[in-house]
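Researcher: Here's a chain I'd like modeled. Treat it as a single chain, no partners, no ligands.
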Amino acid sequence: MADEAARAFAEADFERARRILMRRDPRLGAVIKRVGRCALPDSRTREPFAALVRVIMGQQLSGKAAETIYGRVVDLAGGRDAVTPATIRGLSAVHLRAAGVSRPKISYLYDLADRVSDGGLDLHALDGHPDEEVIARITAVKGLGRWSAEMFLMFRLNRPDIFPVTDLGIVKGMQRLHGMKRRPAERTMLRLAEPWRPYRSIAAWYVWRALE
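Model: Modeled as a single isolated chain. Structure tokens:
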């Protein structure tokens, strides 16, 4: 049975989290006030397999570049509803390379498709598992590390308290938010984010927006 830590947030939860974060942190609150509604709930509409395909496309790339390449993969598959393990496995490496997918990422896509197809990774069942167990299961896939699992937790499962300190956008956003001359260390970011618990996912989304 899913525990509280494994529960996805509803829209009302996000609104409550916004208000609490604004009270706790005036600097982050200014960003929240400027940006408005947190759009994390919108990302949950993507199917879990397609969500992980999108995560793989996002590795080491800007959001815009990743979305462009993901869009090409979607077109090759036959549309957003056709991004399945079978269709991805059926795409040739030549066509994926032409779409802009790197050779390592092609191998990651194939491994993900194989694990989901053979039942080794039940993506729909992940809704019911705590964060660290979700991370353990996803990082068993070739090429998917903790960052990839954290993106899945945030954007697909809408878990409320994920803070991806290895994400470059988070590093730059924290630097700008706090007016730092140098990029902060992970331990510094974790310390600064401590008052945001248990809503660090929502805070992280606004930290990204601080760069806009």
